[in-house]
Amino acid sequence: MAMDLKDWFSNRRKRRERENLVPKQPLSNEEYCALWKQCFQCREMLYARDLRHNLHVCPKCQYHFRIGAEERIEQIADPDSFVEIDQKMDSADPLEFVDTDAYSKRQKQAQKKSGLYEAVLTGTCRINGHDAALGVMDFAFFGGSMGSVVGEKVTRLIEKAIEEHIPLIIVSSSGGARMQEGILSLMQLAKTSSALKDLSDAGLLYISILSEPTFGGVTASFAMLGDIIIAERGARVGFAGRRVIEQTIRQKLPADFQTAEYLLKHGQVDMVLDRLQIKETLANMIQFHQPLVEDPNRAFSKNGRSKVGSRTKK
Amino acid sequence: MAENKPIPLEFEKPLEVLSEQITRLEQQLVSHPELEADIEKLQEQYSKLKKSLYSNLKSIDHLAIARHPQRPYTRDYLERWDPNWLELHGDRKGSDDQAMVCGLVRFDDELRCLVVGTQKGRDLRAKQRCNFGMPQPEGYRKALRLFHHAEKFGIPIVTLIDTPGAYPGLEAEEHNQAQAIAVNLLELSGLTVPVISVVTGEGGSGGALAIGVTNRILMLEHSVYSVISPEGCASILWRSSEKVLEAAEAMRITAREILALGVIDGVIEEPLGGAHHDMDMAAANVKAALTRELKSLLALSPAEIRKDRQNKYRKIGAFVEAN
Description:
The complex is a heterodimer. By secondary structure, chain A is of the alpha/beta class. Chain A has helices at about 5-20, 30-35, 50-55, 70-75, 105-115, 150-165, 180-200, 215-220, 240-250, 260-265, 275-290, 310; strands at about 35-40, 45, 85, 90, 120-125, 130-135, 170-175, 205-215, 230, 270-275. Chain A has a seven-stranded mixed sheet, with helices on both faces. Chain A has a two-stranded antiparallel sheet with strand order 1-2. In chain A, a hairpin with a 2-residue loop joins strand 5 (about 120-125) and strand 6. In chain A, helix 6 runs parallel beside helix 7 (about 180-200). By secondary structure, chain B is an alpha/beta fold. In chain B, strands 1, 2, 3, 4, 5, 6, 7 and 8 form an eight-stranded mixed sheet that branches. The longest helix of chain B has 20 residues, at about 35-55. The radius of gyration of chain B is 22 Å and the shape is globular.
């Protein structure tokens, strides 16, 4: 080494002095929160990038953080394969609804706050190479509630699946029907279920994934109509919520009431999966349900519409 | 009969006061013939007040009439339409929900139908038996069994809706009421026989819709239909259970408002003051409307009937698309 020990020490001193000239700012609260997250369950501090890498599941206690629609799509769809449809659709506020504030104003606020247009993203994608129609709800927008827009987008997604003859996957997360659109919201239950009748007649696979939380009008329509129903670990799912039941009929409810495991125990779902298993399982199931040989009498023929008629005729 | 006298509602109290005055005066008429003119004047006032009262009802008044304890229920209609109607029981899976009544009914020689309707009870015991008109999941599955029965034999279906909604209870959740409702929506969409629903009282959310996906939806004049009860809406959105009035107005729950929104196909007139003032007339009005609608639907082919129903719901929704 050409440099002797004395030089090395003096260089180090100089370098430190130089660095000290630019004093480091302490992290702001937001920066800190962006970098670190505390697990809600085990209180472990988790490095945000690691957490994201682990699909927002605490590596220590397996707590599943609630995630947005965009992240969910990233986790399920092959990279860059998601093509969104019906991107910009707004509720027309048919009732001109006002409670303590106007619905139209609340909508704008929700859009700004969540960065979403509405409570569901829909489109087509590939899952380990398999084509699928994918809809993902986002609880951050109006509690994932279903009004005219969610109903219409889900219905169009179902129609897209029928048209392209691909399986349908919907990840639900919702507080129920959107009260601010009154009876029109209720009718979206009928609209989406009616479209699913056509999908079912076309012999297409529909996998419904229930994520935390899914309640009310969404469970009473498309979420519970999957050929296969998966509950994500940590999800709570039901029709009437725990508080409503406790308040109206003052019934004592078990601690695990409406959890994913409770649903499994009562025969309401096919399986409970960890988030990390979902994509593989979806791909596996799509592949499993494909016909081994093309059968002209089944609805699965590749080109164009199904041969439903012969199956449903009486 | 004294027990059949309609119980007055809160907003009907002024009418009640007037009517009492008239009866009091009438009793004195024999000894005081000069009172005749006063009575006449009061009677005129009474009929004027009655007319103005019932033509200016608020949402909350309609709600009160829809929930009136003497309002005709499914069994009241069935008895009046066909004294020989045949009740069919059970979901074949272990239960026979009394809140859901199903039966075979002949309107006349040419028109028969399956009637499926929610049922409330009149006295306390009947109320409990019918769970206050809130079916359990088994009730929806009982209805579904009979929908399939009607489909098999090409029998048109009429559903009568008067329910506060599905039952918020532990067992109902355990037995998967969300799925029971959802399956009914899906299966009703696919039927090829005509299906008509009439909201006769309260149309309570998913519990009502579970028998309400139909080619035509009719509502009685004073009935209501909503996505959540006004009480529930008030406590969630206003965070106050006292804002029921505001919630009822904001959600547009009355028959005329829902007709204007294009969701339902017609409003059936009720006797003045509500169906409970004259059940026979109410039943006859509903029957006439049903006969008319059923006959027009029976002209369609089975495939057209299904398409007609699916198109109806496909069109419901209010949204704008940006580019």
